[in-house]
Amino acid sequence: MRSLNTALACGQYWFKRKLASFDTGSKRKVFQHRGYCPICEKAVTFHADDAWFRDHLVCSDCSSIPRERALFKVLADYFPNYRDLAIHESSPCGRGASVKLNALCKGYSASQYYPDVAPGEVHPQSGYRCENLEELTFPDNSFDLFVTQDVMEHIFDSGKAFQEIARVLRPGGAHIFTAPLINKVKKSECWASRAENGSVVYHHPAEYHGNPIDENRALVTMHWGYDIASFITRVAGMPTVIVMIDDIDKGIRAEYIDVIASFKAE
Ligand SMILES: [Zn+2]
């Protein structure tokens, strides 16, 4: 696994079944809507050339997709002073909320996970610092906000990762993230785990996100449901809310675009 990075976070081909219906030879638009992009902060057109809006309802200006606009809206609603905050993003995407936070926030930093780079060191080619969410090298109370976008469904020890994120957050800070809560009201299910010797144990047929023609796909480890909120509260002590938005005028309409916000006590 290269990292939970751009290919994953930008995953254009999220479900194979949707890939099958994606007609790359056609410029047809199945949907178009004039609205206001929360990321661009201006009037834009949202358009989709595929009915799977989660990956295809893009902003004409910043190319963001619905879950990115939802995440940014929730972040800015809870923390209108986000420009002044210390923000860390694990595995950022090269568009949408990641680009905006990087451009506007002096206190923004980002990391990726590379198995062949020591955590805390900078990858010589990409320039990203290497960080493993299960074992962050940052001191306690380092950040006001921690952001992840479609990452937490790929972590083997998600309990440890949520604890680590809570540790590096400052009191009053928050982890704001997206993860597809595909199980909805059903209990979360572990899809793949890691054995003592480091090998992968598959509890169900292996599933990957990211571009299926790219060998660096990311293994799905969890099928999360809405019980992710109580799980985070239990393991990491952070009260957690799930924000569900359907607002087509802001280009926020799709399956599995819930935004999860976990708050560290003041
Ligand atoms: Zn936009």
What does this entry look like structurally?
By secondary structure, the chain is an alpha/beta fold. It has one domain (65-263): Rossmann fold (3-Layer(aba) Sandwich). The chain has 7 helices and 16 strands. A hairpin with an 8-residue loop joins strand 12 and strand 13. Helix 6 (158-168) packs across helix 7. The longest helix has 13 residues, at 66-78. The protein is globular and about 50 Å long. The termini are far apart. The model is unreliable at 1-24 (pLDDT under 50). Zinc ion binds at residues 37, 39-40, 44, 59, 61-62, 64. Zinc ion binds next to loops.
Summarize the structure.
With 266 residues, the protein is α/β, with parallel strands linked by helices. The protein has seven helices and 16 strands.
Q: Provide the residue-averaged pLDDT.
A: 89
Strand order of the largest sheet: 6-5-4-7-8-16-15
Determine the CATH superfamily.
Vaccinia Virus protein VP39
SSE order, one letter for each helix or strand: HHEEHEHEHEEEHEEEEEEEHEE
User: Cofactors and ligands present?
Assistant: zinc ion
Ends distance: 36 Å
Radius of gyration: 18 Å
Structural classification: alpha/beta
- CATH topology description: Rossmann fold
Counted beta strands: 16
Largest sheet, in brief, is: 7 strands, mixed
Given as residue ranges, the uncertain stretches (5+ residues, pLDDT < 50) are 1-24
- What percentage of residues falls in helices of 4 or more residues? 10-25%
How many structural domains are formed by the residues?
1
CATH class: Alpha Beta
Shape: globular
CATH architecture: 3-Layer(aba) Sandwich
- Kindly estimate the percentage of residues that lie in beta strands according to DSSP: 25-35%
Number of helices: 7
